[in-house]
Amino acid sequence: MGVTDDLGLKQLRGRLPSPVRALRARSFPLRAPTLPSGVAPLPEPQRTGVDFDTNWSRCWSARMLRAGFVEGPMRLMVQLLASPRRLGSDRLADVEGAVIFASNHHSHLDTPLLLTSLPEPWRHKVVVGAAADYFFATRAVSTMSALLIGAIPIERAKVGRRSADLAANLIDEGWSLLIYPEGGRSPDGWGQPFRGGAAYLALRCKIPVVPIHLSGTGEILRKGRRLPRPSQARVTFGSPLAPEPDERAHRFATRIEAAVAALADEAATDWYSARKRAHSGSSGAMTGPDAGAWRRKWALGDKSNQPSLLSARRWPDL
Amino acid sequence: MAAERRKAPRPGLVLDVDRATPPILFHHGEGFRLERLPAGRSRIIYPAEPLAGLRDPAASIREALLNPLDSDPLPALLRPGMKLTIAFDDVSLPLPPMRRPDIRQRVIEEVLDMAAAAGVDDVHLIAALALHRRMTDDELRHALGDRIFDAFAPQGALYNHDAEDPDGMVELGCTKHDELVTMNRRAAESDLLVYVNINLVSMDGGWKSTATGLADYRSLRHHHNVHTMQNSRSFMDRPNSELHNSNWRQGEIIKASGPRIFQIETTVNNNTFGYDGAMSVLQKREWEWSARDRGTYLAMQTGLKAMPASARRSVFNRWLAPYEMTSVQAGAVEPVHESTTANVLAQHLVAVQGQTDVLTMGLPYICPYNVNSVMNPILVMCLGLGYFFNLYRGKPLVRAGGVVIMSHPTRREFHPVHHPSYIDFFEQVLADTTDPAELEAKYEAQFAEEEWYIHLYRNSYAYHGVHPFYMWYWGAHALQYLGRVIVVGGDPAAVRRMGFQPASTLSDALEMASDVVGPAPTITHIHNPPILMADVE
Fold first, then answer.
1. Among A244, A272, A273, A283, the residue to mutate for chain B (most B Cβ within 10 A)
2. Same domain, B442 and B384
3. Cys-Cys crosslink for B377: which of A113, A180, B117, B494, Cβ 3.0 to 4.6 Å?
4. Banded pLDDT at A310 (limits 50, 70, 90)
């Protein structure tokens, strides 16, 4: 009885349409073509790095979400970690339209700090030039970078036109660009030489560059550290720099670097003393002494070894 | 529409009131009134719309410093080892205070940048406040910006002028009219004195900047007196102002015996309340108010009425005007001021035909002497009969023997820190006499030399003891000229103490005015602020 029933069920199943069979029976063009032997397959299209499409992150819904994130959790986090002092935004009073914000770079905290410090109307219409090999390494990280900080991928390992074309097109559409001309976070607390990307884009798009100096973020979350230590940061906006007629990108980049160095001097001393040194060409470079690692560390002083606010309040272990 | 107007601002307007004219906005202290003026015999003078601001203020400032009028370029006057003093207008300008960056900051940063390039180390910055109250650190920071404040204030190189410092003043000489000229010692002994001015009205600037702003009582009393004010027609029109003639004579002495002066003067437009936002309704013509403007006005009125007076004051004191700089000129004092005055008048002048029997004015919450403070009754008088009455060229808007009707709450309240001598002036001096000449002869010296007032002026934030007298002298010409002054909506006791008549409504005030000027008088309303100056033919 039981055997007869089983056979009947099998016969019934054989007559019913099977989804698996239907899938297996699907043929080209419903199914992908097979690769003829002796033919090299086409390379897989890249979906990460400079190839990551960020257009969607500038639609209004993504912008609204990002604005909420910047003004809410990001601002709170920056306030708790960095208690920032923001200076010099009045220097932007006469600037209209898109600009390039060029800042020195010490920490992953720099971008949140700047995104919450940029004055209106730029704060919510800015894209951040981010390292394609780091912030766009995987699809998930790329999506989060584009959505939460408005990042666009910038190729820093090799020279390519894609990053520059993307940035230039966005600037032409009225987006401002936040970029770190040093190309990455400081490895030792000193600044690094400025690359020419910001200057090139300013010349190409005929827009001013606003130099920005950040201090204190290295003490909070320097390169190589995993957990932040609350401290105080300072953001100083400089006067917008416009390219001079017939000025080359390299020379303009040097001017931008000098302007950031003068802001660093201003942050360390006072504005008038800094201006005097800037005019006499003695502002000093941010890149530190050309010496061995320990001497560079030595010249930095004990800033990097300062205890954090939290640890300073702890009782000593006895 | 607003953007189009910014490109092509309309000039001032004289509107003849007819039955279709809507009620007109009167400022009324920290509030407003909408008043209907009688048709057929009233007219309203509207200010010009804001002129376009300079496209690149920083470049214009640099251009002015590098190509000055009748002077070497500023960099050529700067050298290492020199003594440089930069004096600047105090908190009384502009009105209301402007949004950051203030014009003083813009100009002084450019000057200091050139000084830094020349390697000048000895730089002092002085708020040229004459006998006004000292500026607070916050006010200095607002006017000059963080960078200048942080660079100079901690070293004691940024400070307020002190006209009562026995060691801080020097005598430069006497004019041919025997007017003593004194000046701040640091400024006088500098190799170069750069004066940075904001010209809000045509009275400001010129030799008045240094001869008044950096002087003391001994020097100021030669032009801040009843005789000078009664012989100025008006003190807003320099060629016909005895106040300015005296300052210019003192300027000759400064030129001969004082420091080298590099004058920098700037002008602002009429953009007092902005092109958009809640306050913008205050600089629109009433028939052009949109539904949104009307809603904004109603909401503002309702909100203000629900607030206590101190909260209302606080709301208004927080307003920062979005003024735009319309011109900057630098160099020798006279040619610079001539150019400045032309630029001021281009914004303010409105041609008006003939005088009127009754002049009405709505007085706002602010005048030059109550920034971040209280508008006391003496300042109400000064604003109405001093400033507004004198905003004319040619003849006064109102005929001799006519009536001025001012609208203001005129509360009997004083700021005890800023205006201590005003309280005594109101309670003691005005109780005795309101005649400017009499109170000048009887009381001025006593108040000017009172040690307590001098102490408060030097160490607190008080106006000098003699300052309320100057406020009263400011209206001396109007008091001499007018048949009656009526205050609508003012505190009756305070209004009567000043010798004026209180009225509850504008209709009552017009009835009362007809006792003086006859029935059915002609009426002119000066729709101010934003500022206008009547060019009366």
1. A272
2. yes
3. B494
4. very low
